[in-house]
Design brief:
This protein has 18 helices and 20 strands. Strand 4 (about 60-65) and strand 5 form a beta hairpin. It is α/β, with parallel strands linked by helices and about 500 residues long. A 6-stranded mixed β-sheet has the order 6-7-8-3-9-10, sandwiched between helices. It folds into 3 domains: about 5-240, Rossmann fold (3-Layer(aba) Sandwich), CATH 3.40.50; about 255-330 and about 415-495, Rossmann fold (3-Layer(aba) Sandwich); about 340-415, no CATH class. It is about 35% helix and about 25% strand. Pfam families: ABC_tran. It is found in: Cell inner membrane; Cell membrane.
Length: about 500
């Protein structure tokens, strides 16, 4: 590791009603990977947005490459070598790889753009990174992993020496993660400084040199990774010891609550049959593209099924749209909570009340404020939603608290079946445990719980029964406590042998 290239001291930032950063210190050196860790809402992203010019600080000093800077703009930050790769990738999906890489700084001749020159440079940078991509490809046609590689290539095209990666592996497969880590090691060897933000703590040992931990907007500690244990990292992140990463509650398996028979919907939901019972959590495992999310969407009525039946407490229910499912007592916390689960520009109160207007309105359709207050306050209390008040926009909450709002709006309806699709994606270890405890609470109350997860340890740790999918079909069903990751992976790779004409 080399010289200090970023030094941020006593950085403070306040938003309306929230002190996001409180005298935070941070250092980054050349040729190192620094893991910036903390729970959702700890202030990690806010600190990095100040470094990359997205936010301005209220107070504190910032030196980059030995020069002190005042308030940065994104353009100025790029010019001095800072690039940020956001968790939600900022790509123009209709443009090519080359056009995305040179967006806003196109090379122009007297009358036209120098397209061949830009394409040649894009090809050179991709080649240097050993990324197998055609610069002429449309970005929207690429998988998320390749789009992320384009973002890295874009950063290098402006000669970025400081790369900030925010949850870069949240949507990647194991093979794609290995490829990303290869590129990170290459960038580190070139002397670039990398800030790595992730809630997947098991990844750290593969690439990280040092760790900085934040909590509640404050700097807690920094240390060489080799001097820390995972338990110590978690304890400093959450401010307490977490005795069980995957808390399991034992319940007696009860009556059948929900049954799916011969469900077909599109290419990735093919002849699906399974049942959910009281007193158990059923996990759905499989590789990306296995059809798990598509199955949840077909059950909830988002995607139209071509055939199939649903039975709730022994009686058939017709589900042709989400409203049918909601009325029946079957609800979904979707994979993309910001896009499909929340109205992020509406308040917590409005998000909780919106799908429950029939419960809080009188016969004339006028909202009963007292009922609305009771419904919202109960959700915040029961789910431990961390917020200064109900009027805060849902988009201003941390990822874990956003997930709780999504779940809270459904629990107000006394639902019989709750489906979670990737419920812990992008949230910290403390918030994950709270989501697991919530699932266990539903299980104890006799509510049928189904959840989709790409995290194998999570499925094995929380589920009672695991259903494995591959290529749109159920290929295996096992008891979580009597199986192994290898057995699940075997079922998850049982692709059909198709004849090639």
């Amino acid at each position: 590791m080399g010289e200090v290239i970023v030094s941020m001291k006593n950085i403070t930032k306040t938003f309306p009603g929230v002190k996001a950063l409180d005298n935070v210190n941070f250092e980054l050196r050349s040729g190192e990977v620094m893991a910036l860790l903390g729970e959702n809402g700890a202030g990690k992203s806010t600190l990095m947005k100040i470094l990359s010019g997205v936010y301005t600080r209220d107070s504190g000093t910032m030196e980059i490459f030995g020069t002190e800077y005042g308030d940065l703009t994104p353009k100025k930050a790029r010019e001095i070598g800072v690039a940020i790769i956001h968790q939600e990738l900022n790509m123009c999906r209709h443009l090519t790889v080359t056009e995305n890489m040179f967006l806003g700084r196109e090379k122009a001749g007297r009358l036209t753009l120098k397209e061949s020159e830009m394409e040649a440079e894009a090809r050179r940078i991709l080649g240097d990174l050993k990324i197998d991509l055609d610069p002429r490809q449309t970005v929207g046609d690429l998988p998320v992993s390749k789009q992320q590689m384009v973002e890295i290539a874009k950063a290098l095209s402006v000669n970025a020496k400081i790369l900030i990666m925010d949850e870069p592996t949240s949507s990647l497969t194991a093979k794609e993660i290995d490829e990303l880590f290869r590129i990170i090691r290459q960038l580190k060897a070139e002397g670039r400084g990398i800030v790595y933000i992730s809630h997947r703590l098991e990844e750290l040992q593969a690439i990280v040199d040092r760790v900085t931990i934040m909590r509640d907007g404050q700097y807690i500690m920094d240390s060489d990774f080799k001097d820390l244990t995972m338990d110590k990292i978690i304890a400093n992140m959450v401010g307490r010891e977490i005795k069980e990463q995957f808390p399991r509650v034992t319940c007696e398996k009860g009556e059948k609550v929900f049954e799916v028979r011969n469900l077909n919907a599109g290419r990735l939901v093919r002849d699906i049959n399974f049942s959910l019972y009281e007193g158990e959590i059923v996990g759905f495992a499989g590789l990306m593209g296995a059809g798990r999310t598509e199955t949840t969407r077909a059950i909830f009525g988002v995607d139209q099924k071509t055939s199939g039946q649903f039975f709730l407490d022994g009686k058939e229910v017709k589900i042709n749209c989400p409203m049918d499912a909601i009325r029946a007592g079957i609800v979904l916390a979707p994979e993309d909570r910001k896009k499909d689960g929340l109205c992020i520009k509406l308040s917590i109160r409005q998000n909780l009340a919106l799908p429950n207007l029939d419960l809080v309105c009188n016969k004339l359709g006028v909202i009963n404020s007292s009922k609305e207050d009771d419904l919202c306050e109960e959700a915040v209390k029961n789910l431990l939603i961390k917020t200064p008040g109900l009027e805060i926009n849902a988009g201003n909450l941390s990822g874990g608290n956003q997930q709780k709002v999504v779940v809270g709006k459904w629990l107000a309806r006394n639902s019989r079946v709750v489906i979670f699709d990737e419920p812990t994606r992008g949230i910290d270890v403390g918030a994950k445990v709270e989501i697991y405890n919530l699932m266990n609470k539903l299980k104890q109350e006799g509510i049928a719980v189904m959840f989709v997860s790409s995290e194998m340890p999570e499925v094995l740790g929380i589920a009672d029964r695991i259903i494995v999918m591959c290529d749109g079909r159920i290929t295996g069903e096992v008891s979580a406590q009597e199986t192994t990751q290898n057995e699940i992976l075997k079922y998850a790779t049982e692709f059909e042998k198709k004849q090639v004409s």
